[in-house]
Amino acid sequence: MAPSRGCGGKNFYDTLYGSLVYHLSDFVTMSLTLEQVHRIAHLARIEVDEAEARRTLGQLNEIFSLIETMQAVDTQGVEPMAHAQELAQRLRPDCVTENDQLALRAAFQAIAPEAEAGLYLVPKVIE
Amino acid sequence: MIEFSLAEIAQALASREISSVELTGLYLDRIARHNPQLNAFITVNAERSLAQARAADDRLARGDAQVLTGIPIAHKDIFCARDWLTTCGSKMLGNFVSPYDAAVISRFHEAGAVLLGKTNMDEFAMGSSTETSFYGPTANPWALDRVPGGSSGGSAAAVAARLAPAATGTDTGGSIRQPAALCNLSGMKPTYGVISRYGMIAFASSLDQAGPLARSAADCALLLNCMAGFDERDSTSLDRPREDFSRELTAAASSRPLAGLRIGLPEQFFGDGCSPEVMQLVEAAIAEYRNLGAETVAVSLPSMQLSVAAYYVIAPAEASSNLARFDGVRYGYRAPAYDDLTDMYCKSRAQGFGAEVKRRILIGTYVLSHGYYDAYYLQAQRIRRLIASDFAEAFRQCEVIIGPTSPSTAFRLGEKAADPVQMYLSDIYTIAVNLAGLPGISIPCGFAAGLPAGLQLIGNYFTEARLLNVAHRYQQATDWHLQCPAGHA
Amino acid sequence: MKQWEVVIGIETHVQLSTRAKIFSGSSTAFGAAPNLQANAVDIALPGVLPVLNRRAVECAIRFGLAVDGEIAAKSVFARKNYFYPDLPKGYQISQYELPVVRGGRLPVQVGEREKMIALTRAHLEEDAGKSLHEGLGQAAQGRSGIDLNRAGTPLLEIVTEPDMRSAAEAVAYARALHALVRWIGICDGNMQEGSFRCDANVSIRPAGETLFGTRREIKNLNSFRFLQQAIDYEVRWQIATIEDGGSIEQATVLFDADSGETRAMRSKEDAHDYRYFPDPDLLPLVIDRQWVAQARAELPELPAARRERLMADSGLSAYDASILTASLDLANYYEATVTAAGKENAKICANWVMVDLAARLHREDRDIGESPISAAQLGGLIARIADGTISTSMARKVFDELCSGGQASSADAIIASQGLQQISDSGALTALIDELLAANPGMVAEFRSGREKAFNALVGQVMKATRGQANPQRVSELLRQKLA
After folding, report:
1. What ipTM does the predicted assembly reach?
2. Tens digits of residue pLDDT in C43-69
3. For chain C, which residues make up each domain, given as ranges?
4. C426-483 maps to which CATH number?
5. In this structure, how many other beta carbons lie within 10 angstroms of the beta carbon of residue C243?
6. Does A95 touch chain B if contact means CB atoms closer than 8 Å?
7. Touching check for B392 and chain A: CB below 8 Å?
């Protein structure tokens, strides 16, 4: 069982303020619940109805039983590999490269679902 | 003409035996005739292609042509091409006319190649059969009731059916090599970073790599010469000296051209997972390689069995994030009715994405979420490291690794569509190569019950030229790659 | 009545002074029409990719060195995933587990006391765009407009330990940080334009308690006054809530400057699972020691060092030194004034800069960079006060003339042309005093009967007779001699 990431949550003060909760992941024997499917679907902003969620749940559990074959492997001391190459980030010079921004904006907004006066429009944002 | 190699077409164009307009017209006619059965293309725009062909003819007349000037090339619909509809096989981008060119598209434009059309693909490249495309499945020209493989199935079907001289694809877990195998083509995934990803719609950024799909290794080399090269717009693009990937192919043919080559045969490629018919063809190909002078050594990739599991954590995780930009705000599909902002997101994405894409976004969201990251994502990355180390170890003992590309020949349309896990396992031999970032090529190695099978060659980093030569020598000695599906000659 | 201790930590988003954005070639200039500084990368077209701006990294290195933090040899960019219309990719590129700067500290002047605030980290990230809710056309009723000009602007997020114990300390920290980032040239400090924004994490606990209370985070405070007001309100609210038997729930709150109150945000409530992971489009940022050494060599003398030097060289108090090092421009102005006036006059210079000049700048709403009088001019004036050429009251007149007269004139020229020199000559003054004493026998008698006031009146008479030009000190010396 693995504890949650060292510094999870949105803010580094989580740890500092001593409110860190250790989520013990129960992956070893687990299967997803319907409630979890709804939660991740909402996190991913994908609407799912109840029937779809049920269908998805079955498929995901099958896929996770495949994925969980990984868990048997002892990887202690193995450095995680995030990239296919061991290279450093290349840096660009601090130069402005765009010149005809009016034409660019017109081209970009020609394919926008809803735009007006140079702005992309969305349903009202509530803060 | 449709059986000409790219070099032969180039010569015909250079000698004015045929014009680019005539050649492009020839292929457009074939597309018009055969595409309705195959559904290999999502977008064809004859007028636009012919205009490019005319420009290429001018260039040929001026005498400043390059090898690919005037040759029509089909592009996977994952590459953004300015003023072309670029759908990525999705309803989400059903109205997306790209305002810019991908690096790969620009390079073909600069070479004077003609954009022949945009080919069908699994939605956002997520699939191994081209069945997840919103624009309907593509049929395999060798058997219309079978899949062409995926996700670059449209490109593979188009080249196999001689609807295009060559095509581009992308390969995240086998999406060039597996359709090449299933359609009797040569298809290469280069070392990660050799071809710019700029403008190639991202599926899994650390695995995605573009490559050529063609009728021979020699054709692949010419295409790779055009596609490869440093691009400052892609942080993962490699700044390496330019190389001629066909440089080794010109050496004179001999009876034992591969004398001294050590071929590694990993035990994991020759176990139970592969169908006996395919295995038989692979064994025969290995025997042919021995005839050509190569020796074989047993190697092992012990962590390879875990590659599918690791891949189905890493690729969906990256995809879940890469596909977050499709939110109905700046481009692409927006649901017609919704209550508020969140509902607009949820409905647009629910309606705009197909089932497989949604499934992978959910997997990816889950494995990255709070409390599961270490157990899934980090563990998968550690296994990725083990897999890469296995290859490094194997390449101490051999120069090229050989095995099957796909465990079976083309399966029937719909056969695996309802069973994601079965579908995922069809990439068992190709995925590890992406995880390690290595170059790999699939070449035709014979037929089982009339269906083509593919031989996979894997090389160490940056050994594309060597791999292409090893493939080319086999193709000089065999004629599997010259076979054409019935009805398309 | 229970005693409460306030605990504050601050996260500041500092906009870095680059020409182009952190991952694209769009301009970062402020004030363009909507979406005219948003290219394919900024609006996150399918297929586009980020490449890191070198100057943004340089700014981070400068900052790390200035606060004595550790510059990470290797740091990693991560994706922070959440949906918001001003976040075009659906994730923000930031740094998470491996930030570019770790640790560090910033000395802060709280009144007469210095306090060291410990920094947790500083990391590079991109800014989001802007959502506009007002002023849209008729057709856009019930809509918000999205402007992505700001999306991709480079930010350095600077995070402190929960080290501050009052709103005053928080403001002092914010001011010191604001001064520092401008001092080292990594931020223009323009708070109206959002170049420097603070989030304050506020909690309270009973005095003597060692565990922290539950914090609430006040977002996006873009003035020192708001920072003060918001924390004051928040602390009162938290105390009242707990003393009423309630409890504090962790929340993100906004400060409403009109009502002076904080309120919890309605949106983003489910967004706490950001699913951070290393950005596969960006490779690790590697900073070699040579680059750090070069940045160190290019760094100006830092405020703390400058403060120490001013105290040692000019004998200034800690307080005066901290005021004069509020910005690099001010400190440089002050030192140039001292150079012109002479080192021995440093204290007079400090007074003139902090009092007379500051008042004038304040009245005209100008920055020291736009001072109507140059440091050379002011120094020249101060030299004439010090050597007794003019009186302080005359000097004020000359100061005003210099301020309105442009950079060409000098104190000496004005003094000469208007005959403002002080009269210190004993002969001339003695004659004048003799005349006055003869004409005012009553006053002389009063003084002799012990009324000191009469003496001052006599000095005043002399000053009046010379239209203020007489050296008052000399006058009183001579008078005392005469009346002795």
Report:
1. 0.97
2. 999 999 999 999 999 999 999 999 999
3. 4-293, 301-418, 426-483
4. 1.10.10.410
5. 11
6. no
7. no
